[in-house]
Automatic annotation (TrEMBL):
Keywords: Membrane, Transmembrane, Transmembrane helix. InterPro entries: Diguanylate_Cyclase (IPR050469), GGDEF_dom (IPR000160), MASE6 (IPR048435), Nucleotide_cyclase (IPR029787), Rev_trsase/Diguanyl_cyclase (IPR043128). The chain crosses the membrane at residues 23-44, 51-69, 75-93, 105-133. It comes from Shewanella dokdonensis. The keyword Repeat does not apply. It holds the Pfam family GGDEF. PROSITE patterns: GGDEF. Its EC number is 2.7.7.65. Residues 216-346 form the GGDEF domain. SUPFAM superfamilies: Nucleotide cyclase. This is diguanylate cyclase.
Amino acid sequence: MPMPQHNVYYAQSPELEDNNRRAILRIILWIIVVLGLILCGLNLHHGSVTVAWLEFGVVLFCSVFLYNLKRTSKLKLWIATLLMLVFVVVLYGMQIRALSAGSYYWVLVMPPLSLLLLGLHWGSWLSLLFGIGGMMQMLYTQSTQLPQFNLSLSNNALFSYLTIWAVSHVYEYKRSYVVQQLQKLASVDPLTGLYNRRQLTAVFEHCFTAHRQSGYPFGMLLLDVDHFKNINDVYGHDVGDQMLTHLACLMKANRRHDDWVFRVGGEEFCLLVAQSDKSQLRQMAERLRLDVEQHPGIYDGQQCPVTVSIGIATWPEDGSTFASLYQQADRRLYQAKNSGRNTVVA
């Protein structure tokens, strides 16, 4: 069963991206509806009936889009269709107005709008196609409707479009990078580099969806450092932090490719173990407990021994939701603590 890569999972948040796009789209669609109705009325007043009907068609499409905005699962298809409709109106306006300044200016709106609504990949390609279409329309209109070919007009139009396309591309790239870094900061524990409690719930939902389809169980291991307060008191908080980092390295070394490691509290860690039954989880927990016991941290030339207690819960037997599974693993962790520590309770 394929799982997302650990080093890029925080960057993949389609639900968040879609929610952001829907919020922006709601504003843009209302603007297009209001502006389209105004332009439709003005074009009817000036006798441009065809343009008015095209603009009214865009308004109708935007109205239907607004109605379906919250529930549609094909958001990018709707967006691409909207941009194509707007571009057709722009091209027709360029044709009938013989490249008046007002008709060409609308072409320059396409790159930032495409990149904003479709993202870096699809927005870049679609806006590039819009630029090619706009230039072809300009050359055709010059050759058929203007008395002579204006090379300066074509050069200026091409330069201005490429400039706006490049600036929009750079802006969207930087925006995507900043969003990715913010998501990383919000999802990763800064001390150990492990995922944090916030990301644990998101990854659990992913595992829940994947394993519900396959029907195969997966497990949760909750791990707590024994007598961690004593480590801080005897060796100092700096050594305590190094101990947590050392423990995080041991946990990452013991996990498989499809498993996930989290720091969920001060000295409390969690492992989500994919496709594992009770006996496999027990073996992994015992192996991890023994590895921690046999590899004490070494700080300033002296050893700092450490042990851990581990509680195990299995989905779906011990809980079908995140809260119930975590509660069961936490209960067994405290049983391990009360049983003398340095032990595993399944």
